Amino acid sequence: MPDPARQEIPPPSGAALFPLIAGYMTSQLIYVAARLGVADHLRDGAKSSEELAKATRSHAPSLRRLLRGLAVVGMVEEIEPGQFQLTPSGALLGAGVPGSVRNLAMLFIDESVWRSWGDLLHSVRTGGTALEHVFGMGTFEYCARNPEFAAIFNEAMTEATRWAAPSVLAVYDFSRFRTIVDVGGGNGTLVGAILAANPGLRGIVFDLPSGVEGARRHLEAAGLAGRCEIAAGDFFVAPLPSGADVYVVKSVIHDWDDERSRAILTNCRRAMPAHGRLLLIEPVVPAKVDGSAAHRMMVMSDLNMLAVSGGRERTEAEFRALLTSTGFRLAAVVPARAPSNFSVIEGVPA
Question: 3-state class of 345 per DSSP?
């Protein structure tokens, strides 16, 4: 009788590989559902495909086909023929719900990102940014010329920060500081979460005028406007608010190549007192990757930076080199708690 432990593992089949080959199809299902607001229309209970077609101004037979696709990937459930209800995963495509990823879905499957990934071959062959090759401009110029995309981008960054903030706060002690500057902090979502968890801390959110446009409203709604200032400027050239205890830079450095990243970090170092701390909140790519979900997220994000922004995710050694070249010493790398794939990379003046 053959030993089961010694039996050969059957070779992989094309059927097993096909879901990876056709992954873009699932992406488009989710994108269309997000754009049509399917989750919002199903929030109060199950509906027929005909009812949803009226609510979303869609072609009813085609929408039913989409809904069947969403059912097989777990976003909705077909409880009766032609009758659909949300699953817990599908509910996260709703606008404004806790943990929503609706804007992240619309961002990462937007035409600009979609077409850039379609030209990934150009980036791999040349090292150039596919988005620039396709559209003739960089990501931030594209944002400036496309206000709808810019609005989705800003909301998506807010969603991502809401997702990451609790994991960061769980592993890093901000209570020892008095003043924090959130560099490139947008509408203040991150600094607001840090201030809410640390009543003795005061904050400053720094970003371009367009970036901080919604910061005052957000901080007032959170009851934090009295503890947080808003400063507008360009972190490449404008002096940052000086003298703070800690400068937080989240999801900024990965947008840029080394030269531009050094300009940002040098500006932080100029503003910082001798006792100050720099906190980069970014994924840290391991020296050797595996097939885990965390590594998959980091590697896919790195490829997205290659295709879309011209930036990159970095290893610990690469972060150390960046910090050393801009007057810092790498003091610690503190991984945030799952499901976040961020780490807190702490730099101190050298």
Answer: strand
DSSP notation for 48-85:
EHHHHHHHHT--HHHHHHHHHHHHHTTSEEEEETTEEE
The C-alpha angle with vertex 232 and arms to 154 and 311, in degrees rounded to 5, equals 50
Question: In whole angstroms, how far apart are CA 97 and each of 92, 94, 194, 314?
Answer: 7, 6, 21, 32
| Domain boundaries for CATH 3.40.50.150 within the chain | 158-349
6 pLDDT more than 80: no
Return the CATH number of 14-94, one of 2.40.110.20, 1.10.10.10, 1.10.10.60, 3.40.50.2300: 1.10.10.10
Catalytic residue among 41, 218, 254, 295: 254
Task: Judge if pTM exceeds 0.85.
Answer: yes
CA–CA distances in Å: residue 23 to residues 29, 47, 76, 127, 307: 10, 27, 18, 24, 18
Q: Which residue has better confidence, 90 or 14?
A: 90
Q: Model confidence over 193-252: pLDDT tens digits?
A: 999 999 999 999 999 998 888 899 999 999 999 999 999 999 999 899 999 999 999 999
Residues 122-143 have a mean pLDDT of 95
Q: Would you give the distance in Å from CA 349 to the centre of its chain?
A: 28
Q: Is 254 a catalytic residue?
A: yes
Give DSSP secondary structure letters for 302-335.
HHHIIIIIS---EEHHHHHHHHHTTTEEEEEEEE
- In which residue ranges of the chain is CATH 1.10.10.10 found? 14-94
| pLDDT beyond 90 at 87 | yes
Q: In the CATH scheme, what is the homologous superfamily, with its name and number, of domain 158-349?
A: Vaccinia Virus protein VP39 (3.40.50.150)
